[in-house]
Specification:
single chain; 7-stranded antiparallel sheet; 5 helices; globular
Length: 168
Amino acid sequence: MLSAMSKVKEEPVFLTEASKRLFSRIDFADTFATTNRSSSLQELGNAIFDRPPKWVKGLFKVRNRIVRYFGLKTTMPEDYHTEFEEGGYISFFKILHVLEDELVLGANDNHLDFRAIISKTQEPEFNIKVTTLVRFNNKTGRIYMALIAPFHRLVVKRMISQAWQPAS
């Protein structure tokens, strides 16, 4: 059986023409890829973001306890609903755009704006690209990202591995 880390690999930042227009400035970006030839964008989004492992849920609980003292968002917004449509949510990320081969999720806060882009490509393996884009809104955003960066890579790789399916 493959480990979570062999199901996912880091790649150069992958941006489609549509995703290049999401932010006028990008302060942090990365892309991780996995293999899945059969799932829809909705299924991929749910597999990656809606079913985090228990240890990831624990990290988010700790994060929320700490950041509330800095005025950052820790609760679901009033417009929260789980319909798979623009304006709906997958976990705590709002669905911003649904294109044929691309799903854009995001969250905006006073410290930073975040986008997660799931892209389906035609590559035979590692065809699913999950790109994180961050724009800092102030010094707090820079500090926040510096603090979570060590955890980000580990958490993202583990969550993306949940969408892996063997190439056929």
